[in-house]
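hey so u asked for the seq, here:
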Amino acid sequence: MSMTTDSHAIPSARLGSLRLDFPVWGLFGRSRLAGVGSVLVIPAPWTTKILYSFIGNHVALPDGKRLTFAGQPGDIWYVLMA
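ran it, structure tokens below
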């Protein structure tokens, strides 16, 4: 079984790669905030949303568009509580 059996597959050379543009201290601070939020449990949805939004705003697709995280703490709380 071959992974390249699809004749409509786009060659990986044309896809490009994601571009990451993280300020070191910004990522460090938000990661620590998310860690503290996870330990304290109750603020976890808010701190995780802050971290995911930060990451999304600093990742660029090959065509230059930025990723976005449109989730709200009320939308993701049950995922974090499991």
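The two ends are 37 Å apart (CA to CA). The mean pLDDT is 82.
lmk if thats what u needed
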